[in-house]
Structure prediction request, 319 residues.
Amino acid sequence: MFFWVLALLILCGFLWNYKRQLKIADITDKYIFITGCDTGFGNLAARTFDKKGFRVIAACLTESQSTALKAETSERLHTVLLDVTNPENVKRTAQWVKNQVGEKGLWGLINNAGVLGVLAPTDWLTVEDYREPVEVNLFGLINVTLNLLPLVKKAQGRIINISSIGGRLAFSGGGYNPSKYAVEGFNDSLRRDMKAFGVHVSCIEPGLFKTGLSDPIKATEKKLAIWKHLSPDIKQQYGEGYIQKSLDKLKGTTSFVNMDLSLVVECMDHALTSLFPKTHYVAGRDAKTFWIPLSHMPAVLQDFLLLKQKVELANPKAV
Prediction:
């Protein structure tokens, strides 16, 4: 009996794996639109999918990065300047994309643009510190999706939202984690709403990757700028050496940082080309072995492990 159960499980595993490997037949006539292509995941994705034969429309924030990307890619790839927080810019871009794709529609929309914002203890921050990451990571993503959704529905295509392990587990104060938690919620509701139209919606949750987004120098500079304007009470509670001690703690976590950005692009590729794309993709060794498993654990265990990485306050009772 045990042998037959084992054989059935092996067969199911084989069929499941085979199903995941089935690909769409032709990509050369399919258009995909990617936001945040200046650097990082978006830039690598634009170059990768251009080489594969997709008709890539890469949205960049700056003219210089747009020019550089065009110089490295084929004539198939088009770039467009896009600030996802500017509603008029998004609307004009959507109309331009509509003219480009015509009756074919848009096969793939990859919402990749994002910012980290300020990562600091919550009582250091104002509501304005939360605004930028929420505007870019959430409202920008939603606005781009709503404006391009008719084109994706026409092609019965794919929508891929780049979230983060920060959308599953809050590791710091600031607007980044709330924005990514909200992206997860939007992604789930969109996936269910689009199912009847034959549109597949996937979410990618990268771990910690070495990109411009995660530059520790920039993050520290932002934290220092906020520190200068804190009240004497808060400075006394945290202690003058708090930021440096936090940096020292971070140095011990460098082994968690993934260097290979293609791990995320491979998830995008599967979501775009598989006949049976996944609803969620986890990218990065740290995400698979630590962050995502921890996100399923009881809160008391999450708090214990994450608080071990925080610096002890100098005098939390100081008023």
Notes: The domain at 25-213+256-296 is CATH 3.40.50.720 (Rossmann fold). The chain has one domain: 25-213+256-296. Residues 127-155 form the longest helix (29 residues).
